Amino acid sequence: MLKIWTEEFLNTVSRLDPYFIALHCQEVGGKNYEESMKHVNFFVSLLMTSKELRIFNRAQVFLDEEFTSAENFTALGNFYFIHEAIKEASIWDFNEQEFLPVTEKSIYSGNIEHISTKEKSKFPQDFFPECKWSRKGFLRTRWKLNGSVFDLINIHLFHDASNFTAMQSHSSIYSIMRQKALEYTLDRFRNYEYGFAPFFLFGDFNFRTDTKAVIMKIVEGLDMVKDDVDKDNLVFQYTDNSKEVIFTLKKKEFRHQDHQNIFVSKSGSWLKDFDHELKSFEEQLFEFPIHFQPSYPFEENEHEGMNYMQTRCPAWCDRVVLSAGAKLLINDKASEVDDNDEVEYDLIGKKTCMGDHKPVYLKCDIMNNAGFTEVNVWERTLLDSKLPEDKNFVHLKETTV
């Protein structure tokens, strides 16, 4: 699907005509990364040599590919492309604690632990003890573009391993672990070792709808038949008055008789009532209104790109969220108006097979020469009012908002 995926992505780039592109990928090398990591170079080449990106004369690419290092491997990939119209572009060096001008195209791949223009963290293993080994974590970069400073963070949180475990309670154990990992990440950003900057946080949050509540809604009025003869292959079936099976639930099966219609029609808007995982962070993180259908789990058959797999309840796993300071960098009217030309928040490849996750994008205009001192004060007040007296914001002489 590499060529199909890349074509859809580049078509979106052409339509939006951006000056700066931040592309965050998870599971670099695919699910079978030991065999498929060799294809990553082909993907990078497709992007770097594309006619759509020819006017982006600078780039920074970070690919965490060293899968033999279990304690560090996150399989995250951050791609940044800078248009020739951007006069000033600098990236933060986390070791030297200074901005370095970006003047060329640089690709950092394989083992990137020593690269100082990124901060990478893998979530502690005890965050999710059920998982024998995980690639989940975050990869952060800091930018100064035309006088405005902000962080861009790629994140990958834990998935739901079993439908039965997910439906046992609200919030599910998986949801609790995701919340713990996200809190861990935000705490890292409250660490003023590198100064504090507004940030855009986007990737695969693996946020799910309230599985228990969704099931209760779609099986209302049905009779349940439970087959627990083999506990390793537990099956719940829900039948109507004629004994026809309407809904089937297994560990990795979530199948409704009218599956595509019930979840695809009206963009699955009824499911939004069960999308709760970001609510506990609403004082810290902002998200533009979602008007697109759930981004996961789509069929990986290229002829069924519009259909959902019948494995999990569809959910908005892939998101773009902003800190309070980042929201201030965007035109005020764009933040307040639901439908406007300044902001687009949507899926890429709605009718095309893009894999089990369809990419989500945010198009927005960021102010020039905004600096980040006043933004920092806003962020500090909101997130951490007890700033140590001996800690200072970096580059306090930047032009303020």
TrEMBL record:
Assigned keywords, A-Z: Hydrolase
Family as reported in the entry's similarity comment: Belongs to the inositol 1,4,5-trisphosphate 5-phosphatase type I family.
Pfam families reported in the protein's UniProt record: Exo_endo_phos2
Keyword Hydrolase recorded: yes
Gene Ontology molecular functions: inositol-polyphosphate 5-phosphatase activity
SMART domains linked: IPPc
Domain Inositol polyphosphate-related phosphatase: residue ranges: 1-376
Residues in the signal sequence: none
Gene3D superfamilies, per the entry: Endonuclease/exonuclease/phosphatase
InterPro entries: Endo/exonu/phosph_ase_sf (IPR036691), INPP5A (IPR039737), IPPc (IPR000300)
Record's protein name: inositol-polyphosphate 5-phosphatase
Gene Ontology biological process: phosphatidylinositol dephosphorylation
Enzyme class: hydrolase
SUPFAM superfamilies to which the protein is assigned, alphabetical: DNase I-like
EC number: 3.1.3.56
